[in-house]
Amino acid sequence: MLRWLLGSREAHNGVEKSAVVDIGEEQTQNPYTELSVLQGHNDIVRFLLQIDESRFASACDDGSVFIWDVQTGDILCELRGHTQKITAIVAWGASDILQGKTDIILTASSDKTVIAWDCDSVQQVQKATDFHSTVKTLLVLQSLDVWLSGGNELRVWNREFNLLCETGYFVDGGISSLIELPKNCVAAAIGKDLIIFKLSVASRESDQWDVSEVRCLTAHQDIIRSLITVNDLTFVSGSHAGELIVWDALDWTFKAVERNFSEILSPQDAPQEIKLLQTPEEISVQHLASDEESVFAAVGRGLYVYNLQVKRVIAYQKRAHDSSIQHIAKLPNGQFVSCSEDGSVRIWELRSKPLHAESVPAGFFSMWGFGKAAKQSSHAVKKPHDTGIVATLELIGNLIGHSGSVQMFLYFKDHGLVTCSADHLIIIWKEGNRESRLRSLMLFQKLEQNGDLNPRFSLN
Amino acid sequence: MIGSPDLVPFTMEEGYEEPFHGASGLPEEYTVPLFPFSQANSSPWSRLCAAKFSRDFILISEFSEQVGPQPLLTIPDDQRICGEFDLNYFSLRIMSVDYQASFVGHPPGSSYPKLNFVEDSKVVLGDSKEGAFAYVHHLTLYDLEARGFVRPFCMAYISMDEEKIMRQFLELSSDFSKASKCLKTGNRKAFANELEKKLRDLDYTRTVLQREMEEQMKADDKGFYTTQTIDKANELASVEKSIIEHQDLLKQIQLYPYRKIKEPDFQPYEPESLQDSDVPNESEQPLPPSNPEESLVEEESSLYHPRSSYTPKFIKAKSSKCFDKKLKTLEELVDIYFFTQTIDLLTSIEKRYRGDLSYLLMKQLEKGLLEQQTVSNFLFEDIATWDAKLSSMHCSNTLALVQALQNPTFLEEPGNLKNSASLESYKSSVESVPIKIEQEVFEEGNHQETAERGVSDIPDNCEFNDVDFKGSVSSSDSIEVLRTEKSVALLTHSESQPCLRLSPQPPRRKVGSRRTISEDSIEVLSTCPSESVIPEDFRPAYQIAIHEEDPDGVDVDGEQPCNSTNNEENEPSPNDLSGDPACCMGAETLLAQTGNVTPVPNDGDINKVVSVPPQSYRNMDHAFQVKFSVDRAENHSNKVSPHGLSSPEAESTYLMSSGESVRLSIEEYSDSTSYRSSTSTCSDRTPSPAPCVSGLSERHRRKAGQNALMFIRQYPFSHPAIYSLLCGRTLIVLGEEEAFVRRLVTALSIFVPNHGHVAKPVNTWMTSPLHIMDFQKWKLIGLQRGGSPSSTNILHSLNRYSRYASVLDADHKTLRCPVYKGAFLQRLADHRTQIRRGSTYYMHVQSMLTQLSAKAFLFTFCHHAHLPIREKESEESIAQRRAAFLRQLLGLSEEDSKIVEYLSELLKMHYLRESGTQLLPVLRFDYIPNFLYKI
Fold first, then answer.
1. Are A46 and A59 in contact, with CB atoms under 8 Å apart?
2. pLDDT in the model for residue A168
3. Helix or strand or coil: residue B210?
4. Which residue intervals make up region (Disordered) (chain B) (predicted)?
5. Would you state the pLDDT for residue A427?
6. Going by fewer Cβ within 10 Å, which terminus of chain A is more open, N or C?
7. Secondary structure (3-state) at A98
8. Full domain range(s) for residue A340
């Protein structure tokens, strides 16, 4: 299209530049045919946080946090208390009795404060200010009713924002992420190391909380980029160098390692693309997600599915996006969604690989392809069986709306996908058919209410 | 190359700017013969070439007591319009048929002069010599210095098209009533002011005289009075008397609102009095209906407060002769604020009635129909329609100054009418007024009216009646009064209360009378004083007034040449119907309900001039039919008034030969129902108030239509382009030359469905890169293609969002959009269409799109197409049913279904929003492959 628009100036650039998988304009399986744009933020919207069935919070780089109604698109309240960009946001359910309804949000910011907000009364409930460095990560331990802040030191707080205990100072850039482990332990990613801390809980004997370093795991060769819990027994970490390590959550030994995703590529697959992959960030593990069986890894621009049973990558899509993937998640409806710096959101489906699949050269698909050739094709990147690739990641749709990097997304069962982006916008992607049905339903309800006698709408 | 854009400018302007001049290129046998009377400049529409004026205008004239009838001003104030038309002569004509009550003075039995709260009279008259026909609205204004305190004025809408005036009678009447009200309100105020000043003068004079008397008394102590003293005493006495008289007058004028307040159409004018801050004690402040006495007291008490602004003068015993003094101008008579208001109002009236009758009628019809379709009319209708709504709102707002309803609840409960307008309250206003009308009082049951509503839908007898009517006129005389109406509307529905439309018609009574006299070359064909609503109690009062004031007038029937027997009296209504086509015509209007006519006492002089038949239902939309049965019943049961009859035969005989009339009357009586239905027909013609906004965008429409026609002819891919617009996919017109792109965009904009009552989602010229919001906001965009770096960004964004938009490259003549295979556009945009004129094509498009929105409406509001009909019905089966509905019931192809579905979504969202649901604006799109079309 561009070529057509620009005349012949940029003849073949598009085709040569990108070999990313693409789907044509015909996306029959893509249910998202309606979108609503929410405007309000004035800077990069970095985080989204679901509060309940109909509300979510968005955190912006200008320090503001908005709470939205996903149904009406209204800004329910604006939480303004931070002066710099938000670095972490976490929800804290009131108690287990209240069905997980969140009424407290904790936000950490580069202004070295952490604020607790009540999102019903829009009040700033508590504020902690005496941090020496930016808090980069927050973790709520529901079972102990405490929260942890991770920066250059790890601190443990109770609900009233009393500092219970803290660790010493970490030089190496501080804690970048925290996860909860069984037995009152937490794992913190500090530089290349994973450090396991144990919390000794205040009890009747001693009302003194304590946090102590139990073990330091130094298996990664580069900075740990992401850290997730898979289940009670397993957690996974991924590093900048493209290492993925599966750990045992109980005894903190590593179960498996997958190093160097680029090696998965066999030479005959697409030899010319390997060169393009050689920059280090291309293999950085950007984000991890998991379901019971697999770990999904966003590695550079590619997506990989690592099966925990067979301990190997079972499917991948090495050119899932045009640039680094920011966030991935497996949705409850089975879809696998990724969003990227290229401004697009893509929906994937993991399919078992047919036995005799034909290999289609990836170069066939052109980002700029349009016109009469806009026919959907199979985009799976195939691997011979001996590499363990038994499934394919099938692109079933892409959502194009943002003009900047898509930072994060949220999925609402009843409302669809909410994405936030560096273009200051939040977009709600909805299933058009369902929305249309809902509107019809509302319409007939209204008609009934009006009893057909609404003077403005005399329908007789 | 034919399709070149350069050709457009040349082809565009031709052909539709000027009327057709002969030479259509057809063989002679196929051509329509030219209009036989056509001359150089005449069009077939100007039927009366005799007219010496070029188009309709409004004339205000006065019957001056010094110089007789004289024209005061015309609207528009343009010499060319009147041309050689003799305004003086015509003023004489129209003023000479003023037979309304202008009686003032000492009515028998009363020692003081009485003010008449005179109602306006409305007459249609024609001057066949001049080729002029006029709706004439007579009114009187009070002037302390005038003879009898009144100055007769009239406003006339003068047209060369008789039909137009007859057909628009009710609208005209209602509009002019508004203007008249405005004038009179201002006049009452000014009059009251004047009276107060006069009183002050008199008061001052009295004190001066008293002082002088005392001095004289002192001077000659001898116990007898000198002649001088006696003179002074007489003078003093006369001053005293004068004071009493003036006080009485003032009380009367102040009582006016008090009395009128009981009527819903009383118009307080608080805002004005607020404006007139220099008149602190406004004597006519609107009184709350709840406690009129109180406020009256207040007024009275405030009345004699000294005013700083006015220094009283001594009044000489003998005032100057009336011919010496200069009469007040209209501006002086009427407060200047009201005067300008009135002029504005009249100007807008003049604008509104411009143009050919058929055009007016169609416009009213169309508008009325559109208003019925509040659910779907936003889709493709002009913004002008909404503007009309807005501006009419505005209009009514400004009018509301004069016209605001005092007690709306009153309106909604017709039952209250009788109580509220009690005999007493009326009596005072009417007692002194000589009335020469016979009246029939009808009271109708609301239930019947509703029951018979259905009958009123059959089109019309009017034509017939009309012809008959005219035929019966012996038009040897140059002026014919075609119709008059005097109506009393107790019930005024202001525009601000549209809900009233649904409320049942209030019971109403009707006064019909008929007089005829043909002297002095004036033939009054009919007058129809009618009160749209008169409470029962009022009737006796009215009657009494008639008896008292003008015994002669009572016998109007007796004067009539034929047979006003009791039987006939009892059945007046059929007569009404046959009598006056114009009535039937206008009666349809909802205006009727908004009618604001005030009680009309009739002048005693009338019966010399006019014979008044019963007729005219100002307000009969449906209520109209109901009257029959009830009237009869009532008239049978209680013949309250011997005069309350307007005999059908009486009228018939006027209208046709007696034999015929008999036959007719028999028919009428034998089958009144059928008769009714046939007459009422007309009542659908103008269901809505006359549009407030004239063809504002007329030119724009024509242009757009012409350009669209051009587009369809020149671009073979017009169908997919229009399809994109109709199914809600943004169409981007890309081009370098702004004017060209703009033209294309305007052309295509007529296909863009609106999202609601907001501006069309069209952006004619954008120069910045597109954003996702733009697709949500705009459905048609003109986009700049330029050589600058920013334009590359524009193209990149275009490329990125290609999913949401179709792109029409105006420079290279290419189109990239989904394919269209449906059938609808073949008819909507046929490139071989025979339509040549832009406005015609525009209308064609409108009508096609209206069909489409009707389908969308059906689809949207068809319950089973969207919701399960069985319990636990699966989504799939509903979807199937929906598809079947679209395909089989509505006969739509896949693409056409998409259009309808999109429109349906718009309808849903609009309805939900209108009924208060908050909806997020959405952008709907499809994942459809695009195709590239080239010429």
1. yes
2. 79
3. helix
4. 266-301, 551-578, 675-694
5. 93
6. C
7. helix
8. 16-39+275-447
Between CA A185 and CA B252 the distance in angstroms is 97
Which of A36, A400, A437 is facing B801, going by the closest CB pair? Answer: A400
Helices B738-749 and B698-714 pack at an angle, to 10 degrees, of 100
Residue numbers in A near B860 (CB within 8 A): 440, 443
Q: How many residues can be counted in chain B?
A: 935
For residues B195 and A63, give the distance between their C-alpha atoms in angstroms, rounded to a whole number: 73
pLDDT in tens, A50-96: 888 888 999 999 989 999 998 888 888 888 889 888 999 998 876 55
ipTM score: 0.82
DSSP track, B161-173: -HHHHHHTHHHHH
Domain count across chain A: 1
Judged by CB atoms closer than 8 Å, whether chains meet at A34 and B925 is answered as yes
Q: Is residue A204 part of a domain?
A: no
Answer whether B924 touches A (CB < 8 Å).
yes
Tell me whether residues A439 and B923 touch, CB distance under 8 A: no
DSSP state of B885: I
Q: Which of B908, B912, B933 to mutate to test the interface with A (most CBs of A within 10 A)?
A: B908
Size of interface A-B (CB pairs under 8 A): 150
Report whether pLDDT(B386) > 80.
Answer: no
Strands, E assignment, B435-553: 479-488, 515-516, 522-524, 527-531
For all residues of chain A together, what is the average pLDDT?
78
Mean pLDDT: which of A287-296, B15-24, B159-168, B545-554 is highest?
A287-296
**In angstroms, rounded to a whole number, what is the distance separating the alpha carbons of residues A355 and B731?**
45
Here the tokens at position B772 are 């996702």
Any domain includes A387: yes
All residues of chain A having their beta carbon less than 8 Å from the beta carbon of residue B688 are: none
Residues of B in contact with A34 (CB under 8 A): 922-925
Provide the token pair at B880. 């199937």
Whether the CB of B922 is below 8 Å from some CB of chain A: the reply is yes
Q: Cα A351 from chain centroid?
A: 22
Specify the DSSP element, H or E, that contains B718.
helix B718-726
Pick the more confident residue, B326 or B582.
Answer: B326
pLDDT tens profile B158-179: 888 888 888 888 888 888 988 8
Taken in order B308, B313, B319, B323, is the CA torsion positive or negative? Answer: negative
Q: Which of the four pLDDT bands, split at 50, 70 and 90, describes residue B33? A: low
- Nearest chain B Cα distance for residue A288, angstroms: 28
Amino acid letter at A49? L
What pLDDT does A421 receive?
92
- Any domain includes A114: no
Interface contact B768, partner A, CB < 8 A = no
d(CA A80, CA A96): 28
Question: Which of B53, B85, B52, B51 has its CA nearest to residue B71?
Answer: B85
Whether B928 sits inside 8 A of A26 (CB atoms) is yes
Nearest alpha-carbon partner for B527 in B470, B594, B612, B447? B612
Length of chain A: 460
Cβ atoms B505, B623 nearer than 8 A: yes
The residue-averaged pLDDT of B745-754 equals 88
What is the pLDDT at residue B526? 37
